[in-house]
């Protein structure tokens, strides 16, 4: 597998001489991570909670990973834009959170940003000498973290985020790790995307239900105003609107107050 961005000017590390037992162990770890991923029930947790679980499974699935994070970007993020708009992120360890803050909020450079913009995995075996990220690499190396692997989360031709793995040793992520990590990133992108769609659909449904309830209350309030004034529906609506603007209260709240008042008066008359 050579379709990834390696560190410029640094000779790729030789592929480790892995015994059949180690290869089998790595495959088992990958399948365990994928099994854990498939076991996440999207409607049983929030997107943020799901990202936390995905990050944990990533550490298990990617050989050499000491800590990992998952980052999602805003759908309208332009791959050519200088600014990356983070939608959500989760990490497995405090040091990964510190690295994320450096990368996204303070320096605006790093393997995840490069990976999301290129749509290709980004690998670094010696962050302190990686000229792609001169400020980020040195800062992270001083933390004792020297290797990084960023894997894009891709749906169709669109990158929705990335998985970022880190390790203290140099050249921790050879092609073997990139290959297994990419096998994990593919299904992860689909699962996360589906969870986002479900959350978005639920939000729209909730907003629609709220709008329908508000519309019903407003219609009731219009009927009450008309019964008192004898005016038209438009005149009653205009009156409610003026009250809303004068008192700086939402129209639906004005209508609800009027309806509640009418109900209280009706009950009082019945007593």
From TrEMBL:
Name the PROSITE patterns for this protein. ANTAR
Write the record's keywords in alphabetical order, separated by commas.
Kinase, Transcription, Transcription regulation, Transferase
The record's InterPro entries line, in alphabetical order, gives: ANTAR (IPR005561), CheY-like_superfamily (IPR011006), GAF (IPR003018), GAF-like_dom_sf (IPR029016), GAF_ANTAR (IPR012074), WH-like_DNA-bd_sf (IPR036388)
Gene3D superfamilies from the UniProt entry = 3.30.450.40, Winged helix-like DNA-binding domain superfamily/Winged helix DNA-binding domain
- Where the record annotates domain ANTAR, the positions are 198-259
SMART domains, per database record: ANTAR, GAF
Q: Where is this region: Disordered?
A: 1-20
Q: Superkingdom of this entry's organism?
A: Bacteria
> In its UniProt entry, what is this protein called?
GAF and ANTAR domain-containing protein
Protein source organism: Mycobacterium pinniadriaticum
Q: What is the lineage of its organism?
A: Bacteria, Bacillati, Actinomycetota, Actinomycetes, Mycobacteriales
